[in-house]
Amino acid sequence: MNRPKHHAHMGIVVQATRVATPGTDPRHARNIILLLAMCTALQMTSYGMIFPLFARKIGDFGDSVEVLALSVMAYSLAGVIAAPIMGSLADRFGRRPLILGSFAVFAAAFTGYYLAATSMVFILTRGLAGALTAGLGPATMGLVADIAPEGERARWIGVIGGGTSAGFIIGPVVGGLLYDRFGYGPPFVASIGIALLTLLVAFFVIPETHTREKRRRAALYQRRAARLMPDRGTAVSFRASLPHPLLAFGTLLFINLSMVFAWFFIDPQLPFYVFDELEWSTAQFGALISAYGWATLIGSLTLGRSSDRFGRKPILVIGIILHSAQYVGLMLTGTYWVVIGAFVIAGLGEALVNPALSAAYLDITPEEHRSRAMGIKTAVGSLGSLLAPALVTIMIRYVPPQGMFFISASLILITALVVFVALRLPDRTEAARDLAWEVSQERVMAAQTALRNVTVSAATARELRRAA
């Protein structure tokens, strides 16, 4: 800025030559996101170690696909109910409490899975875990949006996705090998230990990015909106909190719903199919999941920023088409290495879709409601993972596994067509805060009043100068 100048009757006037924009230092922001990705990798490693064992444990209880599907439904139903609430809590109280709380619940849930003596206890444990960890995704995406540069959102979301994929590279293989050699004990104990380590690391390295000042500013903004439109305050506030345009928001939700539905439609069937019909070992199944994780990891780190450069829509269409490869591969063949190749292609597709999809949500969402919007996204995904297993329990007696794979493949390809035809994202990257005509008029009146005051002050100063 220029040096201050003294003007008679007007005090000190400072001429601004640049605008200082507040925000997290880019290097510090990068370090925070990398540390969060490391915590995500640890958490997913601990989950991945026991994920292949769920079907084994259900089988030891004397149950099969239907019970595993019910456990998935319990987890998903809890997520449908809790995710929007948890997202709102992350906007109101900050990201850090939701992230740390979720990591603590994961450690407790893994212990519950290990100690469960019946299928009912296992199902109840998964339901509680689904409710109490539903805030992790919204809070994580909110944190990234808080500190990542606007033009690099997909890139850094891809880094978080890479952490998730890294966990699925290591966890299922190690868990499968430990189970084949030692039984349930070692993989579950190791999983619980890593989950506790994740909580400890996150406690010391993950700061609060949605600070008290930001939360207070958002609350003041909401109160102002309610005061300006008292007759429609709640409705307008809720509508303003949603991503706009609503058609684009609805299309993004459909993408999320269909992709989650497609996977969970085959998820209860897949382990029993590969163990019983294809006669794969637990380690082979773990290696399949690991190959998918490798592809997603490499793709997230190398392709994650593609939508920042080439646009969200084309990357979404390409990624969704590639993602269908896993269902097509399972439908057409049971050859191990061919299925592995199909899962690798699908993993690359997911590496394109997830960063572009989450970045598109954040692009069109008001800043103060980012975690709420991501909570809605999580809830819709949980709805897909609830409806799909419910449908599986009905169709499992009438439709062979290849039929299930065909349905999922068809749904994904239809989704790509819907995105190509219907998705219209605005050119602007941040949703405008449109509180209706009254708010605009209020701003105009405030500007006119300020200008009038300046004019009166200037006229008074001139009169005083003449009098002097």
Write the layout of secondary structure elements.
Blueprint: E1 5-7, E2 11-13, H1 26-50, H2 53-60, H3 65-93, H4 95-115, H5 119-132, H6 136-147, H7 153-182, H8 185-205, H9 212-228, H10 233-241, H11 246-266, H12 269-277, H13 282-303, H14 306-310, H15 312-323, H16 325-332, H17 336-363, H18 370-395, H19 401-422, H20 437-467
Antiparallel strand pairs: 1-2
Helix pairs in contact: 1-6, 1-7, 1-8, 3-4, 3-5, 3-6, 3-18, 4-5, 4-6, 4-8, 6-18, 7-8, 7-13, 7-17, 9-10, 11-18, 11-19, 13-17, 15-17, 15-19, 16-17, 16-19
Structure, described:
The protein has 20 helices and two strands. It has 468 residues and is mainly alpha-helical. The protein has two domains: 373 residues, MFS general substrate transporter like domains (Growth Hormone, Chain: A); 33 residues. It has a two-stranded antiparallel ribbon with strand order 1-2. Strand 1 and strand 2 form a beta hairpin. Helix 1 runs parallel beside helix 7, helix 4 runs antiparallel to helix 5 and helix 11 packs parallel to helix 18. About 4% of the residues have low confidence.
